[in-house]
Amino acid sequence: MGILRPGVCDQVETPNFSPAPPLNPSAGSTLSRSTHLIDACFHAIDRAMTRLAAWIHHYPERLAAAVAALALLATGASVAVANLGPEEQRVSTRSVIEAVEPLPVRAQIEALSQQTQELYRSTQSRSNDSAEAILKRLGVSDSQALNFLRVDPEFQKNVIGRPARSLRAQTSRGASLLELSARWVNADNTFGRWTLRKTESGYVSNTQTLPLVASTRLGSGTITSNLFAATDEARIHSGVAVQLAEIFSGDVDFHRLHPEDRFSVVYEALLGDDEVLGFGKVLSAEFVSGEKTYQAVWFRQPDDASGKGAYYTPQGDSLRRAFLASPLEFSRITSGFSMRFHPILQTWRAHLGVDYAASIGTPARTVADGVVSFAGVQNGYGNVVFVQHSSGQTTVYAHLSKLLVQPGEKVHQGQTIGLTGATGWATGPHLHFEFRVNGVYQDPQKFAHSAPGAPITGSMRAAFMQQAEAARAQLAAASLVNQASAQ
Fold first, then answer.
1. CATH class of 333-447
2. Is 312 exposed, middle or buried (0-12, 13-18, 19+ CB in 10 A)?
3. Which residue among 227, 282, 317, 445 is least packed, with the fewest CB closer than 10 Å?
4. In 333-459, which residue ranges form alpha helices assigned H by DSSP?
5. Which pTM does this prediction carry?
6. What is the Cα–Cα distance from 97 to 264, expressed in whole angstroms?
7. Are 261 and 287 in contact (CB under 8 A)?
8. Side-chain half-sphere of 428: how many Cα atoms within 13 Å?
9. Domain topology for 116-211
10. Which tens digit of pLDDT belongs to each residue from 230-263?
């Protein structure tokens, strides 16, 4: 056992062990710094853990999303790694060698060379067309055909300067012309066909007159703004729309149509060479305006001298009025039969007629049969036409830009007697229309609904009622046409 000497604290005597080396001061200093560094690291980790705990407390959703994303990434990576190493033992290969005999190419080339590629194009003629313009529009590049058309009298007569005629060209693969045809409708229920063909000796042309074939078409539509817009939407020709307005002009004010008014119509399409070249008469029609329904059926009586027939209600009452509702087919009333402030005289005075808005050159038509009593210039009327009708009735058409009738000339209902303008006392282009009875001014709109024509009576009534019943069935089918198209 060691003996501790008094007053000595750093030495211990041991009999069996060597004394420990003295403590190095620099080593102690290094140990102290390491201890401080470790303490600082623990403090930093503690602070980081505290912040992490606070973040997890405030944003648990973000932590869950991050964990899910890491799990999905790990799954994708494992799948990708798994797919990179397919088992080679499952892949087997086998070589197959066969002799293939190709088909005879020369025979195929000869067969293709004998095939002729023909192209067909169509267009419509224009008023300012030339032979060059027509061929270019049809994709034809053929100087021989162009030279022939320039001197062909039938082409110059029937195509050049004749707008809206149907043109159809047949060309070869090299854009040379093989055949060119033009078709148009004549006034006598026939159509004309001019044809140009290429022969071994050159081009030849001829013109034929052939009968038209009438085909029945059905259509219907709903008014959104005006009748023309509705017929365009229903893909019905504008000529049919004009007839609809004429048929129902005595009952429907087409200047004041309402949204959701609707119509159904059965009409003729005129075919030539199985192509629609024009449109014939309306066979039956229905117009629903508000809560009122109007129907019309075309019927021709044996004693009808004109042969044009007329329109009747399904009950046999005539729809033809003694006076048309308006001297213009489509327009709006800008000033009625009432007191107004005169725009030129700047005074309040009676307006003894009706003003219709119209651009210069719009056809003005007589509202009833009669005789022209005056056609010329008169005071504030400017160019004006007076038409004398029966029973002391007179109609006046003023501010015309052009007169198309002469005094003493007989005119029939709907005939164009002049073109609208702004002559005389007019602040702008329009038509001023008056109606007088024995010299006294009357409201023109009231007479549009008066004096209906004669109804169907006698022996023809049974035949008419049978035709009216068939017309009802066709109109019911026509009303479904647009609905089926929409669905």
1. mainly beta
2. buried
3. 317
4. 444-447
5. 0.60
6. 72
7. yes
8. 8
9. Nuclear Transport Factor 2; Chain: A, (3.10.450)
10. 999 999 999 999 899 889 877 887 877 888 899 9
